[in-house]
Amino acid sequence: MFIETKNLTKKFGGLAAVNKVDFHIEKGKINAIIGPNGAGKSTFFNLISGFHRPSSGTVLFKGTDITKLPANKIAGLGISRTFQTTSLFEQSTVLDNVIVGHRLRTKSNLFDAILRTKRLKREEKACRDKAMEVIEIVGLTHASDKMVASISQEEKKRTAIALALATDPEIIFLDEPAAGINSDETQGLINLIKQLNQRGLTICLIEHKMSMIMNLADHIMVLNYGEKIAEGTPKEISSNDDVIKAYLGGSASA
Amino acid sequence: MKIMNKRTGLIALFVLAILFPLIFQNDYYTHMLTLSFIWAIAVYGINLLAGYTGYLSLAHAGFFAIGAYSLGLLTVKAEMNFWPALVLACLITSVVGLLIGVIALRTKEHFFAIYTLCVGYIIYLVIDKWDGLTGGVRGLIGINAPSNIGPITFETAESQYYLVLTFLVVVIFVIYRIVHSLTGRTFLAIRNSEELAQTIGISTMKNKLTAFVLSTFFAGLAGALYASFVRFIGPDIGSTAIMFDLLMYLLVGGIGTLSGPLVGTLMLVILSQNLQFLQEYRMLIFGPILTLIIIFYPRGISGSFFDWKRKRRNQTGNVLKPIKVEEG
């Protein structure tokens, strides 16, 4: 088991945003979490990536407990993520945005910076090379010198993915990668996600666009009101009564 | 071509700075410029934290005062030599900075600004009320000028000017190196989005603390130089009025740019000296200028200048060289 959550719960006041969720992610697969608005999907991501401390339950990564680790340590283990709204540095180029993504694999400190040591020069080159490599993977080589403010929404999504890739992750969590982009561009992103998966990267994504998920995911979990209501292959999910009810409303006679 | 222009411009500026006292032979101007350089060092410290890391500290006049009083007390009361006292003053300020930073950096944004404003005021109060140590409102007098380095003495206005100029150049150089390194990129990532910085594995607390301590170090250095230059210090140097002067220099010059602190400090110090005859009514001129700059040029004079140059370069269709971190 690659990533496993046991009994994972997060309460905000009296409200359980995530309630006793058992979930597992297998290595090398494309996993997806779906559910109506406010179902607790993003909270679930935040629990795994260390942004929220769970109220109870555990998160295991390759068998070790990472429940209490801070977000930056979790990133160091090889767990990376993107956000729903991309928070890139708009007044800077795509390349400059991505370079800092490899910082966690470097060691140079303040004294290296002031003295401009060999180590700093070597690591700066490593960061730049890494950035160029991941920019090529996401297909933005042509735009690497453009200001982030001047590129399209879809290119910003790709930049955010490149930034996550620059950390050398083993698994990447994508929070609604296709939100706010049109269907042609969505197809491009689907191809990119498949391509990343073929390179051996494990993927877990949250998405609203059902057609996208059904084409893409190997394994799906459905959340509703913070609880897991179904889990399985796309086929199993699309014929599950509870899921149809959750999406169409309780009174639907499906 | 571009690089050549920039480099020759910098060299010309440096030569001008060196020749200034020789050309003008006017102690008043030399004195004023030396003072602005000292303020500029403190503003560079604030800029590293507020401009590059995104944490606006309002405690730095307090750290400036800690640096000044440390040097004053060490040389006057402990009768220490200037140079070890200077090093110690910077260290003392940094240690106090570290202790305050650990707590202050648990807050963010407005809360950080308000918290540090309080810290700055408390430092001022401690200096003002601790009569036995600091001399209270009477201040500290009889601080010596920097002691000789071998045959070089620092008794004249010119020699002090060159001493302060040297420190300023070293400070700008060190900050240039930091900003254009992986450490600088890390600071910028934190300024941009702390959440995103954490997801890419950056320990935000460690880096923020580094930036905070560094900025207090520069404020302390400026304070120590001020004490030995003016030779008299009172609690007022740690007051909020000074803090907002420093902040004004930074905002007018350009927050988050390398040249901003120097440009802003020089301009406003010279302007305020020339408006001396207006006395308190000077603020009637400063107020509107500051408001207009914040509204129309939020990146200050330097920031807006470089934005404008970049835009023009893009329009003329020249191939844009990737801009490293930020120009200015």
Automatic annotation (TrEMBL), chain A:
<dbReference type="GO" id="GO:0015188">
    <property type="term" value="F:L-isoleucine transmembrane transporter activity"/>
</dbReference>
<dbReference type="GO" id="GO:0005886">
    <property type="term" value="C:plasma membrane"/>
</dbReference>
<dbReference type="InterPro" id="IPR032823">
    <property type="entry name" value="BCA_ABC_TP_C"/>
</dbReference>
<dbReference type="InterPro" id="IPR051120">
    <property type="entry name" value="ABC_AA/LPS_Transport"/>
</dbReference>
<dbReference type="GO" id="GO:0005304">
    <property type="term" value="F:L-valine transmembrane transporter activity"/>
</dbReference>
<dbReference type="GO" id="GO:0016887">
    <property type="term" value="F:ATP hydrolysis activity"/>
</dbReference>
<dbReference type="GO" id="GO:0015192">
    <property type="term" value="F:L-phenylalanine transmembrane transporter activity"/>
</dbReference>
<dbReference type="GO" id="GO:0005524">
    <property type="term" value="F:ATP binding"/>
</dbReference>
<dbReference type="GO" id="GO:0042941">
    <property type="term" value="P:D-alanine transmembrane transport"/>
</dbReference>
<dbReference type="InterPro" id="IPR003593">
    <property type="entry name" value="AAA+_ATPase"/>
</dbReference>
<keyword id="KW-0547">Nucleotide-binding</keyword>
<dbReference type="GO" id="GO:1903805">
    <property type="term" value="P:L-valine import across plasma membrane"/>
</dbReference>
<dbReference type="GO" id="GO:1903806">
    <property type="term" value="P:L-isoleucine import across plasma membrane"/>
</dbReference>
<feature type="domain" description="ABC transporter">
    <location>
        <begin position="3"/>
        <end position="250"/>
    </location>
</feature>
<dbReference type="GO" id="GO:0015808">
    <property type="term" value="P:L-alanine transport"/>
</dbReference>
<dbReference type="InterPro" id="IPR003439">
    <property type="entry name" value="ABC_transporter-like_ATP-bd"/>
</dbReference>
<dbReference type="InterPro" id="IPR027417">
    <property type="entry name" value="P-loop_NTPase"/>
</dbReference>
<keyword id="KW-0067">ATP-binding</keyword>
<protein>
    <submittedName>
        <fullName>ABC transporter ATP-binding protein</fullName>
    </submittedName>
</protein>
<dbReference type="Pfam" id="PF00005">
    <property type="entry name" value="ABC_tran"/>
</dbReference>
<keyword id="KW-0813">Transport</keyword>
<dbReference type="Pfam" id="PF12399">
    <property type="entry name" value="BCA_ABC_TP_C"/>
</dbReference>
UniProtKB/TrEMBL annotation, chain B:
<dbReference type="Pfam" id="PF02653">
    <property type="entry name" value="BPD_transp_2"/>
</dbReference>
<dbReference type="GO" id="GO:0005886">
    <property type="term" value="C:plasma membrane"/>
</dbReference>
<dbReference type="GO" id="GO:0015658">
    <property type="term" value="F:branched-chain amino acid transmembrane transporter activity"/>
</dbReference>
<keyword id="KW-0472">Membrane</keyword>
<protein>
    <submittedName>
        <fullName>Branched-chain amino acid ABC transporter permease</fullName>
    </submittedName>
</protein>
<feature type="transmembrane region" description="Helical">
    <location>
        <begin position="58"/>
        <end position="76"/>
    </location>
</feature>
<feature type="transmembrane region" description="Helical">
    <location>
        <begin position="111"/>
        <end position="127"/>
    </location>
</feature>
<feature type="transmembrane region" description="Helical">
    <location>
        <begin position="209"/>
        <end position="234"/>
    </location>
</feature>
<keyword id="KW-1133">Transmembrane helix</keyword>
<feature type="transmembrane region" description="Helical">
    <location>
        <begin position="35"/>
        <end position="51"/>
    </location>
</feature>
<feature type="transmembrane region" description="Helical">
    <location>
        <begin position="161"/>
        <end position="179"/>
    </location>
</feature>
<dbReference type="InterPro" id="IPR043428">
    <property type="entry name" value="LivM-like"/>
</dbReference>
<dbReference type="InterPro" id="IPR001851">
    <property type="entry name" value="ABC_transp_permease"/>
</dbReference>
<feature type="transmembrane region" description="Helical">
    <location>
        <begin position="283"/>
        <end position="301"/>
    </location>
</feature>
<feature type="transmembrane region" description="Helical">
    <location>
        <begin position="82"/>
        <end position="104"/>
    </location>
</feature>
<keyword id="KW-0812">Transmembrane</keyword>
<keyword id="KW-1003">Cell membrane</keyword>
<feature type="transmembrane region" description="Helical">
    <location>
        <begin position="246"/>
        <end position="271"/>
    </location>
</feature>
